[in-house]
């Protein structure tokens, strides 16, 4: 009897040691999320919050600093012992950056992380049964289009800074994807915007800070006015045509009473 109890105890202990299931508290499995509209919108807006780290002047060493402080219109001066910062801003100003340049590396990392958030959202939402959580297919299409154009905006700014890029549209696509030349990246961004433009909402106060049709048109205008540099082909006529569509209100208009204007331009509404 004693031997039987020892055997049973050992067998039970062995079985428990092979069960490696655990509760993970550092992340949320997609299967346990997307149960309502609020959770869907949380995923859609996640890349926007991240953009504050790389797109805003007050953020980290991202797009704005790398783009503006390497040009002629701005400089970050040293005043006494303040502002030297290891020579970061001097190297940017004089284009004497070094291979291990933190300002450049940080911009690349932050911007591609934001693009990755878009990819994750698109993958997750493609598997969500929207009807089961009280949302329509039209709402799903609009949110997917918004996220695709937001991803295209990330690539637009990356293309501006770095030229040729790896185009990664699926999470886990590879550790080191092959790069694509700048004209091909340009064409991919343009197609992404054009394919999703008509599914975007028009501009309104409630959606301030989110991608709208006006934002998509503005991205196209930026691309076309820079097309000579980015692709070697001048497209000024296309830029004018897009700008006229914006002026004519195709993407919506900033109309309404004074309180609405205050909401649109209040600090908490700006990305």
Fold and architecture overview:
- Helix 2 (37-54) packs antiparallel against helix 5 (102-126) and helix 8 (213-225) packs antiparallel against helix 10.
- The protein has 2 domains: 35-180, Serine Threonine Protein Phosphatase 5, Tetratricopeptide repeat, CATH 1.25.40.390; 200-271, no CATH class.
- The chain has helices at 2-17, 37-54, 63-68, 88-94, 102-126, 137-162, 182-196, 213-225, 227-231, 236-247, 258-265, and strands at residues 165-166, 179-180.
- By secondary structure, it is mainly alpha-helical.
- The N and C termini lie far apart (72 Å).
- Helices cover 56% and strands 1% of the residues.
- It contains 11 helices and 2 strands.
Give a quick precis of the structure.
With 271 residues, this protein is mostly helical.
What is the element layout, followed by pairings?
Elements: H1 2-17, H2 37-54, H3 63-68, H4 88-94, H5 102-126, H6 137-162, E1 165-166, E2 179-180, H7 182-196, H8 213-225, H9 227-231, H10 236-247, H11 258-265
Antiparallel strand pairs: 1-2
Helix pairs in contact: 2-5, 5-6, 6-7, 7-8, 8-10
What fraction of residues sit in β-strands?
A: under 5%
Q: State the strand order across the main sheet.
A: 1-2
Number of domains: 2
Cα-based radius of gyration, to the nearest Å: 24 Å
Number of helical segments?
A: 11
Largest sheet: 2 strands, antiparallel
Per DSSP E runs of 2 or more residues, the count of β-strands stands at 2
Low-confidence stretches are: none
What is the CATH class designation of the largest domain?
Mainly Alpha
Averaged pLDDT, please?
Answer: 84
SS content category: mainly alpha
Assign an overall shape: globular
CATH fold annotation of the largest domain: Serine Threonine Protein Phosphatase 5, Tetratricopeptide repeat
